[in-house]
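Posting for a labmate who doesn't have an account.
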Amino acid sequence: MVEPTVPARPGWAALIMLLLLAGMWMLELLDQLSGNQLDQLGIHARDVDGMPEILTAPFLHAGWDHLISNSLPFVVLGFLVLLSGLTRWLVSSLIIIVISGMTAWLLTPANTIILGASGLIFGWLTYLLARGLWSRRPAQVVIAVLVLLVYGGLIWGVFPGNAGISWQAHLGGAVAGVFAAWLLHRRTTRRVVTAGPVRRYPGY
């Protein structure tokens, strides 16, 4: 369990997420201008040489429509996670990116390139839901309920559906989000060890 960190100020949290989003839009613009050359930095399924791209794929998208659909949940869910502190945000995001990417790499048919932030988004979603369960803090429980009401419908994306949508990345991200919440927010049981009765002996 990671030690408690100083919560991020809402203004700074919002600024960080907006800067990240602006960076993704800039990358998509460069991708369009280069004739989609940046798409090669996506995850190459079943290709060992393409595994390092697990770390770059979440920040690239297959066109403007793809990026637009991910932009709002990326900012909102990332902002809510970031409010818990920068350290927890970084650790949980890295866990989600790696597990989501590995799942997509392993389960997606070969000769496929996977791009997009949706795996990370699904991870943040389940992280926020599970965090309330593990921590049992009232504020985090309220956030979990609100997130469930607004974005709960996204959960169905972990099942195979429309062609061209990586349910594999969604599934990996969802599992990783629960794992990250358990790792970072579970309550440890403290055992108090008490000494037994003290025996006194004459002459000692």
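Reply:
Got it, the structure tokens are right above this. DSSP finds six helices and two strands in the chain.
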